[in-house]
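Fold this: Protein MgtC
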Amino acid sequence: MPGPFPSPTPEALNSAVSLVVAFGLGTLIGAERQYRQRTAGLRTAVLVAVGAAAFVDLGMRLTGGDGATRTVAYVISGIGFLGAGVIMKEGMNVRGLNTAATLWCSAAVGAFAGADLPLEAAFVTAAVLAGNTLLRPLVNLIDRIPIDESATEATYEVLVTTEAGSAGPVRDLLVGRLEAASYPVSGVAVEERGEEVVEVVATLTATAVDSRELDAVVAELARQPGIRHATWSVQTGD
């Protein structure tokens, strides 16, 4: 006499194995994130991996390989929206990019597991853990290297504060001094800083400069009549 519950089918057992693999590998990734006290920790990584595995497995169960392929595409785009939620901008700094990338990789692990490729899922997990752990000493070493401004691609601006009535002559003087120092100007903007004071901002065409040369140009400009203040700034590229 048959029992009260039907026996699991081979397909159901296969799905269970995929989910277990995704759960286990997602736990490895999430444990490292939890230890680092990141925004998306253990539970998030596990849920992303299990969810991706479940959707890919469902696509395979319904329409075979074609269904799994379409499901993977939707999983990738969906995880992109989820990853955007953990990225935060604080002033000029952006936080959470590594956490978002880790979630993206967790989804890849789950997709491999859902597609019945557990060995490949393990390889991706190992690569993610290596990237988040073994590369940390290299990142710290690179961050400690002093920045050579002459070799750094960045946007350089020279700022001069003057009276509103002197904006035109000061603008010409600023451009002339920079071009004489072999730093061509790509654009000049005049920004109001009150009713009587303006700031003339010259953006350099060069992506790398010698800081000592700019210091000399700025010091010379600061000594000119009508100029209240002169300085320069740099903003590094992405």
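DSSP finds seven helices and six strands in the chain. The radius of gyration is 29 Å.
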